[in-house]
Specification:
- Helix content is 77%, strand content 0%.
- With 277 residues, the chain is mainly α.
- The chain has one domain (2-276).
- The protein is globular and about 50 Å long.
Length: 277
């Protein structure tokens, strides 16, 4: 649910360069996490004592995903970036069978395929737009690259199921430092121009780039990966509705059709959960 606000908040942050936005947002996330650790008297050092592969996966994924996502937001309308990026549940379902050995059922594949069809319908405006300019092509490529990175991270988290979820806070801090260094070397600094932009960055760090990560990490390590991935297609629907409500996207019959396919796919792919219930 929290991720549904991601595209809108990234848009409201204004023309902040992507690396700077990653650094600022994750700086907020790490600051809030560190304050919570200290308030609870948690063993902070323990969360940082993790194997190198754990750090490599976490930092590469969080830095790479969000840099590409924010890059796409600057090139393509936010609703289209959000929808193109929402292919990651399909990638998780496909990769999870290879990485974890857990079986894929027909409803997993049918559900994520229906969700993918809905995404394609939305992006192509009912298959009426099948070619893009150079900037749009780069924007969509960035969104799809981000989706692949997030799928790899999510499935990889399952393999490191013994690593405490609190370590995600360390990933956020390291990502903020890496993004800051890259920003200072490669980008001009553009500070948010309005209180709304500052608030959007703070909310990014506390929600989509903060608390949501901890919940997702716990779900990937303890829950049913395919069912959770199928349900995650609902993020694309909610994100679209949020952007429409905020005046950042237009409500059309094509949007309704695409969203219907996404919701139907999510229900089907999450059959494991509702059958058990």
């Amino acid at each position: 649910m929290v991720w549904a606000s991601f595209a809108l908040l990234a848009t409201l942050a204004g023309p902040v360069p992507p690396l700077q936005l990653v650094a600022m947002s994750f700086g907020v996330s790490f600051g809030a996490t560190l304050a919570l650790w200290l308030w609870r008297g948690a063993p902070v050092i323990r969360y940082f004592r993790q194997p190198t592969p754990v750090w490599a996966l976490g930092i590469f994924s969080m830095f790479g995903y969000h840099f590409l996502y924010f890059l796409g937001i600057g090139l393509v309308p936010p609703v289209e970036v959000s929808l193109a990026n929402s292919i990651w549940p399909l990638l998780i379902v496909l990769l999870s069978g290879l990485a974890t050995g857990e079986p894929l059922r027909w409803w997993h594949l049918a559900g994520v395929s229906a969700g993918l069809l809905g995404v394609v319908v939305l992006i192509t405006k009912g298959f009426s737009v099948l070619s893009f300019g150079q900037g749009a092509a780069l924007g969509y490529a960035a969104a799809l690259g981000a989706a692949l990175i997030w799928a790899i991270y999510s499935v990889g988290s399952r393999r490191f199921h013994r690593v405490p979820t609190e370590t995600v806070g360390g990933f956020c801090g390291a990502t903020a430092l890496l993004a800051l260094g890259c920003h200072l070397a490669l980008e001009p600094t553009v500070w948010p121009a309005t209180p709304v932009a500052w608030l959007a960055i703070a909310l990014l760090g506390l929600g989509p780039l903060g608390g949501a990560f901890f919940a997702w990490d716990h779900g990937m390590k303890r829950g049913n990966i395919r069912a959770l991935s199928g349900l995650s297609y609902g993020t694309a629907l909610l994100s679209t509705l949020v952007l429409i409500a905020a005046g950042k996207a237009e409500a059309t019959p094509t949007v309704g059709l695409g969203c219907l396919a996404i919701v139907g796919g999510a229900v089907l792919a999450s059959r494991d959960l509702w059958r058990r219930a």
